[in-house]
Design a protein that fits this description.
The complex is a heterotetramer, with two copies of chain A (311 residues) and two copies of chain B (298 residues).
Chain A lengths: L5 E3 L2 E3 L3 E3 L21 E7 L12 E4 L2 E4 L8 H12 L5 E6 L4 H12 L6 E5 L11 H4 L1 H14 L4 E4 L7 H10 L4 E4 L3 E4 L1 E2 L4 E2 L5 E5 L4 H14 L4 E3 L6 H9 L4 E4 L2 H4 L3 H15 L23
Parallel strand pairs in A: 3-4, 3-16, 4-7, 7-8, 8-9, 9-10, 10-15, 15-16
Antiparallel strand pairs in A: 1-2, 5-6, 6-14, 11-14, 12-13
Helix pairs in contact in A: 2-4, 4-5, 5-6, 7-9
Chain B lengths: L13 H8 L6 E14 L2 E7 L12 E4 L11 E4 L1 E5 L2 E9 L3 H7 L6 E8 L11 E7 L3 H13 L4 E8 L8 H6 L4 E5 L6 E2 L2 H11 L8 E6 L2 H13 L4 E4 L15 E3 L13 E3 L6 E3 L6
Classes of the chains: A alpha/beta (311), B alpha/beta (298).
The complex binds flavin-adenine dinucleotide (2 copies), flavin mononucleotide (FMN) (2 copies) and FE2/S2 (inorganic) cluster (FES) (2 copies).
The site of one FE2/S2 (inorganic) cluster has 12 residues of chain B, from loops.
Chain lengths: 311, 298, 311, 298
């Protein structure tokens, strides 16, 4: 038997595969297709203090190897989640991460407090990186100072493990990572979507109601992987890697680059049983390579004979 | 299959009857194989899929998501209405698709033998009670596809008065006419180029019909519509004027098809959901694709 | 007849389709496949003062909808180009842009001077954005100050039209654009490649000798388009858009977003006659839409009913 | 084509003779159609393409770039050695490919009738003069594919002494053996699992042969090798020791195939290019894929 268990900033996972926020609903939607108990973890759709309508349609557009979205964090609100969804989620043996966002630091703090009072939540993933809302969201994630301040305030408000989710739009993502680590984050997840755009040439109008939206999917994997590698070298708290993961080999790339766990997002749309297939693939790989503990893989990138660009 | 396929057009048999007895099956992701994929009207293809469909009960109005190939381009599955039918050769699923862009173009190039992943059945289909006395079917373009299944169900439940209104750009794009006529259902055609039937929009044809017939504003008469959004909006407003209940099947870009991505949202009238903010939008893939026309913010 | 002519900072082009640097060699390589006279312009492979060996293999890796490269600007050097290639290029009626790079400002200046003395060059594209060389290259393009300084010095050294090529790695690409405009750039081209990475999970080693490389191809198009749209709103000099263009519709998206011309890069590998097909497609589109001058399309993005993210 | 295809394995006819007379044709990008695509050995497929090949002259050692489908995933074309042959049905191009990854897996799923864009002929093929007296062919795995064409050319130019050394993991992966034997060419086999011929590496088999035969170090004897890099390095060093000229066909990842992307670079010995820096690397697609073993920095 190979050991696939990892620990993400105080949260033990039976395996390192987590369903990413916004691509797995509140988890329950997938139960007809997939045994949720098989997953390492689930990050639920981003929650705000109050129910949130989201952006007008059209909200999505396919691009080559990826998709743009401007959902705008439509959600049922933290209270409805606690009342309607959480009780059902408690029936599963899987780590539940609640993805939270606010328009002000105060909002983030209040959601964090609210969730701290409840049972059945493994940790919070703080979305300081959503490109699809005007106030708050990404604005907190672009500059180290803002990100650090927000982390500090939420840290004070809750004893739940904190995973801070970073945006690739940050001018220097490693700086942001170091700062939130310094302010008490237990782990870091990256990346959120890349700000992109698509135009309908027949109408000369943007294909998303919000003009720009977040790019996700296999298309962004090489950039996301590079960022995870850079950040993992700079911080000592666990890094959770995501961005375009759509096979067990993709997942392994992120872990070899230094990620302690991975999240699977858009790939859940392409193939609703993707998470299970990735978990299975990782186990088979470990067996074939006679690696008995996945931790031996983490950060095992072999750079002999390589150098970052010759001159 | 070439020759044999004419037979595949025959009206549903026991299948559809079963549908109303058996509860619709819950969605699953299945491997299917293309057994037929040919152009049956200009830019309109018929694809027949074989797979584990014996317990696959799909209601008219419901849909499936097809993965186009095994790569990531195109990335997202595409939604299509689907009919199940049986022949001596087995149980098949058939879809009719219009080539409108990248994905459907790639589909049109696919050859029999190719394998496609299929997720379904998905969404909420058309609803009607056996007390229904008259059904007014209004279809624009490919909108007739999901309605075709409904028509068979209506016939089988013994609903006598069925009126079909179909519109298309041109006569060559009017689908299933012979099939409907074979069933002695009155079909009112409209074409934008006047090549067949009324020269104009199907909604105008529908309006004239309503003007000349008196329907009681009760649940014994129901409109069912599918087609381009403007055509649906017009049909909805006509049904409001004549106080007829109306079910519309909407389309929207989709990523997941199962209600998690929130990408397929359509604006809903607030009051219909006691003004809860998060209910301002409905998911075509879950609350729909068939909606009560009154729910939609047109 | 539709008019497809545009003028890029003093350089008239018969149509707005330019072959991108590093993907079209020195131009001549494509002559068996394509009539070079049909093109709006050609940007030759990046040239340095002296011949340059480039990076060790492996230098390329395919990714979903894109590719990573770490060629490292291998080139024959400016003198060999002038002696061996330029005379042959003069036989064609197509605008020749010479893409230049250096490790120091001094090197950039000297190449610019050297090329100013020669006939048959329409303009210079200054590569301040190559991720694949240690010194110079991208380092100049990441910060507005550096980029401005470099532009100023080159501006003094040559009267040739200057197109400055920006990197998407810039912390704020619009700032860089404004600065180089202020220092006398005649036009701006963007984007160069995105820094990415790929790992061979069987060996745990990077798939490029340089660990990271530049991501190009259709995968990056949505991000590149968004950046071009942002920059085009900030500067008044012509913007040349590129990044993943692989069809006439892609090209039109960039022009509607505000690009005066486009460059086609990686797509030349997928289909060596891509540039011709794009030019043809653009003409057919204009005819169908009864647009008699392509300039009417530039920046024609229709935002009615759209807003950048609702709250 | 199923049945008929055995015939397609027959030695080249006039085609290859022509090759040496007519100058090789310049590259073009052509539309081709798959007429045959089946597994002929474990994980090894044979694909036959039809297209405008009447004036398509490809030299052994040269290659083509195939675009896999019309989407962007996989994005880049894949390079393959190709043979042209004629039958009563017309002129075809055939490739043999090993399923090693994503692109070749997708190829293995392709069905007859599918269209593929083909760029070629590309690169520099094998060279030999009619004064050649002995040819030593050393092949590892799929390396035999480009060498097969060479062997026919050698035979047709009347070169009597041809020795073929082929290595593979297992007997089932040794290709074209019956074909070569039918031509009365001595074939020395090596398999890593000992399932056929010498139990070990083909280079070891080659070394033993050289030990037991004296060849004059002149241009009348030439080694031609293709296969995995380590096997080529070993073959090269053996040929150096025995002072025999050696041509090797290299592989490398490719994007353009025509010399512009510089992605396929391999390290060259400097002196061979009077130490000009930019010549430190050679392009497999243009200066190669066939190189003089002496040029390569092994
Ligand atoms: C529930 C449902 C059932 C459907 N049933 C059928 C059917 O039975 N037959 C049929 O031909 N079509 C049907 N459609 C529409 C079909 O899904 C789209 O035409 C198809 O996805 C277009 O894909 P594409 O890649 O060719 O087009 P794209 O290249 O993606 O886009 C081309 C055009 O198609 C439109 N489009 C893209 N995706 C969708 C979508 N999901 N819904 C509507 N329009 C879209 C785009 O707005 C654009 O105008 C259905 C759609 C839904 C939501
Ligand atoms: C001039 C030339 C001629 C060739 N002729 C043949 C042939 O006749 N038959 C045949 O089976 N193969 C041939 N190859 C190799 C063939 O091109 C690769 O096996 C193929 O491109 C792999 O594609 P993939 O997507 O399946 O592999 P990928 O998923 O891209 O990679 C899988 C494995 O294949 C290797 N690979 C990828 N691209 C290449 C490449 N261009 N060259 C070598 N290895 C590569 C990778 O390093 C990796 O180990 C030739 C290569 C060259 C350069
Ligand atoms: C439709 C959609 C909705 C998303 N919603 C959220 C969200 O609510 N909160 C969040 O932190 N990230 C959200 N994301 C970002 C994903 O969690 C993930 O960071 C991103 O998509 C990159 O990973 P991927 O390429 O695997 O999808 C969303 C992504 C998509 C595609
Ligand atoms: C193989 C390769 C080599 C390149 N070499 C150069 C170069 O020498 N100078 C330069 O400015 N850009 C170079 N580029 C970047 C391209 O010109 C272009 O900016 C980038 O690839 C994005 O466009 P695309 O997606 O259309 O390829 C190179 C790109 C590739 C793929
Ligand atoms: S398509 Fe994802 S929610 Fe409807
Ligand atoms: S493959 Fe592009 S230079 Fe050889």
């Amino acid at each position: 038997m190979v050991n696939t268990a990892v620990n993400i900033g105080g949260i033990p996972l039976k395996n390192p595969v987590i369903a990413a926020s916004g691509t797995f609903g509140y988890g329950l939607e997938f139960s007809p297709l997939l045994d949720l108990n098989e997953l390492g973890g689930i990050v639920v759709k981003g929650l705000s203090l109050n129910p949130y309508p989201g952006n007008p349609p059209p909200r999505i557009m396919e691009t080559t190897g990826g998709m743009l979205n401007s959902i705008g964090l439509q959600n049922i609100g933290v209270d409805a989640f606690i009342k309607e969804k959480l009780p059902l989620l408690r029936n599963y043996d899987v780590a539940i991460f609640v993805n939270i966002f606010g328009h002000t630091i105060e909002e983030y703090v209040r959601i964090a407090r609210r969730l701290s009072e409840t049972e059945g939540i493994a940790g919070l993933e703080v979305n300081i990186s959503c490109p699809n809302i005007k106030k708050g969201g990404m604005s907190f994630g672009k500059e180290p100072k803002q990100a650090g301040l927000l982390t500090k305030r939420i840290r004070k408000a809750t004893s739940l493990p904190l995973m801070i989710k970073l945006t690739p739009q940050a001018s220097d993502i490693a700086d942001v990572a170091k700062r939130v680590e310094g302010e008490g984050a237990d782990s870091i997840s990256l990346v959120n979507t890349f700000l992109g755009m698509a135009i309908d040439v027949d109408t000369a109008a943007p294909l998303l109601s919000t003009i720009t939206g977040g790019l996700s999917g296999p298309a962004i994997k090489p950039i996301a992987l590079r960022m995870v590698w850079e950040v993992a070298q700079k911080v000592s708290i666990p890094v959770v890697g995501l961005g375009g993961i759509a096979s067990y080999r993709d997942a392994l790339e992120f872990m070899i680059a230094g990620a302690q766990a991975v999240q699977v997002g858009t790939a859940n749309f392409i193939n609703p049983t993707m998470c299970r297939e990735i978990i299975h693939g990782i186990k088979e790989y470990l067996k074939a390579k006679h690696i008995d503990d996945i931790k031996q893989l983490i950060g095992s990138l072999n750079l002999s004979g390589h150098e970052t660009t010759s001159d | 299959m070439g020759k044999k396929d004419a037979s595949l057009f025959m009206p549903f048999t026991t299948t559809t009857l079963k549908k109303k007895k058996i509860a619709e099956s819950s969605m699953k992701d299945s491997k299917t194989k293309i057994v037929f994929n040919q152009e049956v009207a200009p830019a309109c293809f018929r694809m027949v899929l074989s797979g584990p469909f014996d317990n696959f009960i799909i209601k008219s109005g419901q849909f499936i998501m097809l993965r186009l190939g095994m790569g990531y381009d195109p990335l997202l599955r595409r939604p299509f209405a689907a009919h199940r039918f049986k022949t001596t050769e087995g149980t098949f699923l058939e879809i009719f698709y219009h080539v409108v862009g990248y994905g459907t173009h790639i589909m049109s190039q696919m050859l029999p033998g190719a394998e496609l992943a299929l997720l379904g059945p998905l969404g909420k289909g058309f609803e009607f009670s056996d007390t229904l006395s008259a059904a007014l079917i209004v279809a624009g373009g490919m909108g007739i596809v999901p309605l075709r299944g409904l028509i068979y169900s209506l016939v089988e439940s013994g609903i006598k008065n069925i009126q079909i209104f179909v519109g298309a750009k041109s006569a060559s794009q009017l689908l299933f006419l012979t099939e409907f006529r074979r069933m002695d259902i009155p079909v009112h055609c409209a074409t934008e180029d006047g090549s067949s039937g009324y020269n104009g929009l199907v909604t105008e044809l529908f309006r004239r019909f309503l003007d000349n017939h008196a329907f009681k504003a009760d649940n014994h008469t129901m409109c069912f519509a599918c087609g381009p959004r403007p055509m649906l909006a017009k049909t909805a407003s006509l049904s409001f004027n004549y106080q007829l209940p109306c079910q519309v099947s909407l389309e929207s870009r989709m990523a997941c098809g199962i209600g998690v991505c929130l990408g397929c949202a359509v604006k809903l009238k607030r009051q219909t959901h006691h003004d809860q903010d998060q209910k301002k939008y409905g998911r075509v893939c879950l609350e729909g694709p068939v909606f009560d026309a009154k729910e939609i913010e047109w």
